[in-house]
């Protein structure tokens, strides 16, 4: 069984400046009125123009993950960097709920999770314009914590609230043959039943996908990392691939995805 170990995180100006322009002159700066235009109408027009210029909202990519020992979290944080580098798109990090009792986690020597990263609720998924799901492998498929999260999305499936939303995967495995590809492609069934759009990265990472001189996770299905016995730190190539996937997904969301409000079940029925 591959495990998602490794990369453990420790938990543990206001300046006033002189204006660079002349003070306002009421007579000089007053707007020029047309014959049928009143000062009030001019003010209203200016207000509407200014307000409309601030209505542009960034598209949202939610990076939703489960990381027992920290490897998947390493990829997720680097992935957010990639998403945020694309103009008009913003990435958000979320954990899924833990399902193991605390005493079991202590026996497995699982490090305490950072409080700064929120646990996502199922209903929050509909607020995303794109989704990236990360998880360690368990015998070649996703860990039970992530599976339990998907199992709780039944009411969203019933209403087709996630239909048409682009989504992708990234994974962690213990060994080279531990499921870098199977862990991702066995998860595609979750997207298919929701009508979501699976976005693999293919070989868009270029030469980085063909390096043979060092050990590295990842596949055309998505970014990946090898955890080994739990002590291995993700390589720079693995982290760079995760950042690339973040950029790639953000670009796809920006190019193809409509605002989340227009991909609800009602708009597809």
Automatic annotation (TrEMBL):
<dbReference type="InterPro" id="IPR005025">
    <property type="entry name" value="FMN_Rdtase-like_dom"/>
</dbReference>
<dbReference type="InterPro" id="IPR029039">
    <property type="entry name" value="Flavoprotein-like_sf"/>
</dbReference>
<dbReference type="InterPro" id="IPR010089">
    <property type="entry name" value="Flavoprotein_WrbA-like"/>
</dbReference>
<dbReference type="Pfam" id="PF03358">
    <property type="entry name" value="FMN_red"/>
</dbReference>
<dbReference type="InterPro" id="IPR008254">
    <property type="entry name" value="Flavodoxin/NO_synth"/>
</dbReference>
<dbReference type="GO" id="GO:0003955">
    <property type="term" value="F:NAD(P)H dehydrogenase (quinone) activity"/>
</dbReference>
<comment type="similarity">
    <text>Belongs to the WrbA family.</text>
</comment>
<feature type="domain" description="Flavodoxin-like">
    <location>
        <begin position="61"/>
        <end position="249"/>
    </location>
</feature>
<dbReference type="GO" id="GO:0010181">
    <property type="term" value="F:FMN binding"/>
</dbReference>
<protein>
    <recommendedName>
        <fullName>NAD(P)H dehydrogenase (quinone)</fullName>
        <ecNumber>1.6.5.2</ecNumber>
    </recommendedName>
</protein>
<feature type="region of interest" description="Disordered">
    <location>
        <begin position="1"/>
        <end position="34"/>
    </location>
</feature>
């Amino acid at each position: 069984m591959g495990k998602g170990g490794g990369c453990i995180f420790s938990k543990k100006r206001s300046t006033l400046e002189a204006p660079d322009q002349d003070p306002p002159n009421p007579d000089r700066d007053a707007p020029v009125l047309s014959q049928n235009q009143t000062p009030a109408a001019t003010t209203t027009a200016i207000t509407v123009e200014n307000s409309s210029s601030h209505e542009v909202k960034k598209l949202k990519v939610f990076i939703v993950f489960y990381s027992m020992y920290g490897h998947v979290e390493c990829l997720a944080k680097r992935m957010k960097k990639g998403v945020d580098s694309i103009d008009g798109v913003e990435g958000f990090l979320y954990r899924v709920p833990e399902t193991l009792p605390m005493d079991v986690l202590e026996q497995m020597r699982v490090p305490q999770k950072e409080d700064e990263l929120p646990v996502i609720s199922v209903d929050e998924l509909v607020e995303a314009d794109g989704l990236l799901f990360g998880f360690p492998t368990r015998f070649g498929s996703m860990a039970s914590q992530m599976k339990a999260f998907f199992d709780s999305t039944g009411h969203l499936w019933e209403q087709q609230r996630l239909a048409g939303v682009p989504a992708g995967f990234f994974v962690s495995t213990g060994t080279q043959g531990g499921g870098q590809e199977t862990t991702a492609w066995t998860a595609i069934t979750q997207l298919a039943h929701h009508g979501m759009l699976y976005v693999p990265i293919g070989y868009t990472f270029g030469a980085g996908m063909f390096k043979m001189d060092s050990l590295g996770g990842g596949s055309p299905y998505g970014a990946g990392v090898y955890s080994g016995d739990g002590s291995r730190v993700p390589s720079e190539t693995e982290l760079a691939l995760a950042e690339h996937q973040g950029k790639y997904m953000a670009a796809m969301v920006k190019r193809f995805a409509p605002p989340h409000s227009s991909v609800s079940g009602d708009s597809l029925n």
